[in-house]
Amino acid sequence: MAAHRCGPLKQQNKAHKGGRHRGRGSVQRDGKGRIELKILCKKVRKELSRVDQRHRANQLRKQKKEAVLAEKRQLGSKDGPPHQVLVVALHNRISLPEAFRLLQDRDMGTVHLNEWGSTYSFMLLCPRLKHRWFFTSAKRGDLHSVLDMAKVADTILFLLDPLEGWDSTGDYCLSCLFAQGLPTYTLAVQGVSGLPLKKQIDARKKLSKAVEKRFPDDRLLLLDTQQEAAMLLRQLANQKRRHLAFRDRRAYLFTHAADFVPSEENNLMGTLKISGYVRGQTLNVNSLLHIVGHGDFQMKQIDAPMDPFPLNPKVTKSQKDSGMAMEICASDVVSHMEEDLKVLMKADPDRQESLQTEVIPDPMEGEQTWPTEEELSEAKNYLKEGSKVVKKVPKGTSSYQAEWILDEGGESSDEGDEYEHDFMEEDSQDEKSEEEEECETMTVGESVRDDLYDEKVDEEAEEKMLEKYKQERLEEMFPDEMDTPRDVAARIRFQKYRGLKSFRTSPWDPKENLPRDYARIFQFQNFTNTRKSIFKEIEEKEAEGAEVGWYVTLHVSEVPFSVVEYFRKGAPLIAFSLLPHEQKMSVLNMVVSRNPGNTEPVKAKEELIFHCGFRRFRASPLFSQHTAADKHKLQRFLTADAALVVTVYAPITFPPASVLLFKQKSNGMHSLVATGHLLSVDPDRMVIKRVVLSGHPFKIFTKMAVVRYMFFNREDVLWFKPVELRTKWGRRGHIKEPLGTHGHMKCSFDGKLKSQDTVLMNLYKRVFPKWTYDPYVPEPVPWAKSEISSTVPELDME
């Protein structure tokens, strides 16, 4: 009897895998030579008993609670900075002087009116509540001042109208503040007592319901009497604190006093002395200082004068009347400031941060050898041989004469065009004569309003805007499509472009063909790790310098005189300390979304105004898709349906940081275009521009087709032959060979083409932003209610 033999289709079972459940012997063999762990690992941590776990959780909860309470008690106390409150009126019927009169309660404490800026700013010292406030406000319509003061304010007090809540200007202000990031805020209603008693309760209910869209679960307070103002102050002192991430890791200062000492060489440059309370983190004199809207500077020294607004001022009794007490006012403190001046720190030149923002490129680095004369002559001969055209000419014709011989078709077409042009001119003249016979003349009264309206219209701006709208519509209908030029060869016009088998998976070296501007910027080897190490050092290491809550005077060197003029006009002067590397230029990527209230087309590489964290600057950005791939397609316009990534040259800023994009109009106003956040600092992020060339099938066979109008000469067809083709209906193909000399080509596809289909060729090129960074932003024209496009309509309280 023959033995059984397995056939070729024998079943092959998988070998057994031990996995995690191994025997003791294999564990001992794998563990030979290993050393026991000296730190507490996750496995040991999990083996804590339930009682210990509960006890540990209670300890952590208690520590966090104590830290929050300590932070709340320090703000506004005698050892901490004053509680800075920014008062924002959201309606034109709100009276700021009346609100400030109610808050300046002499029974609550001492009031100090400051003289440096706006009339609506004062310091309130309340020993009974052991708290001190600094109330300030910006001029209505001054967008930069509102945003800058909101960056350093501890609390924002919004004043609402009892009937409408906020108008279009207030809504525009709220949109900008929400996008930048709101600190702690409080809502107060002014003017409820002026309404009839029957309408007061109804108005408050309607206002609460309407305010829920912007401020859900927030309580509305009243501000019409001294008692309501006292309740508001207690609410401001005791409410929960909200943090802004971009300012918690940096020291910042709101300027209360400023002085300018000109240098000996130039009166327009000198040393700026700014005084204020340190907030956020400890301020080191060796770090750089950024004055918002003016640039980065170095500090010489930090002084510690007497606090001009102490919570418990010294009391001196006069000899005449022992019962009367006299408080030391801020003016007396200033007069004795020189006597009590104390120098905290002086800058160390060896440890001080440098102001270098760019790398000085070496023009000889990476040089290449220039081709020899023999190589150049060979290249010319090769081009001449490739450009030869075969023509039928009479016998005895020289090569020079052959160049002047034209094709018969060209002559006939020119004659036909001339004939057609003459014929159309005759028709137009006949039509004009007929219209003149039919029409009559009559007098019509002129409209004065139309003439006045036309005087305000800028025709040139209207033409530019119309052209932008047309380009945006074409881009939506035919994305990235471009007509092949007829006056320039396609191989020359698109010589910097390349074809890709797959946009997602095809390789592209990020270091290839970089522009000269990339030699000027700084790049991190690992940006994420650098950011983590800097933030960890801030949390763990104790920094030297002025502590939070101290009143200090900073000596800032090499400051232009225009900064002091800006402060003396009443504008706020705000300074932020910079983290390491934040003065250096690099490529910033920001994720933004289009503001619904702005519908004007915004083209790539158009100058925009950026508010990125604590910085404010102008730049010309690129727009690209926000994807997880290594290549990102360029968007020619800022779209409204999806979030895009904005790429610009700008100083390094460590995220998180909010981003606001504004566009300056012809009348000087700034219109909010988009809002978002900072994504990364990465020069290697590739933005790829796509160009789509289109052709039309002329003759269609089974899987073959003759395509025309994509190219207009034979050499271009041969040049782009390796690039893959696709159609709008999903077919794939490639060029087989050119036909004739007018750009017709034979193409093969993976299926039969439809006559109404369009053949497309995708070409790609990496693009880079323009170096147009400018840290100086012109002051905007104050908003007018009629010129602001509101994102949310005004509240209907009727």
UniProtKB/TrEMBL annotation:
Region of interest: Disordered: 1-29, 405-436
Gene Ontology cellular component annotations, sorted alphabetically: nucleolus; preribosome, small subunit precursor
Pfam families: AARP2CN, RIBIOP_C, Tsr1_G-like
Classification via InterPro entries: AARP2CN, Bms1/Tsr1, BMS1_TSR1_C, G_Bms1/Tsr1_dom
Superkingdom assignment: Eukaryota
SMART domains in alphabetical order: AARP2CN, DUF663
UniProt keywords, alphabetically: Nucleus, Ribosome biogenesis
GO molecular function, one term: GTP binding
Keyword Flavoprotein: no
An annotated GO BP: endonucleolytic cleavage of tricistronic rRNA transcript (SSU-rRNA, 5.8S rRNA, LSU-rRNA)
Basic residues: compositionally biased ranges: 13-24
Span of domain Bms1-type G: 81-242
Compartment(s): Nucleus, Nucleolus
Family: Belongs to the TRAFAC class translation factor GTPase superfamily. Bms1-like GTPase family. TSR1 subfamily.
Purpose of the protein: Required during maturation of the 40S ribosomal subunit in the nucleolus.
Protein name: Pre-rRNA-processing protein TSR1 homolog
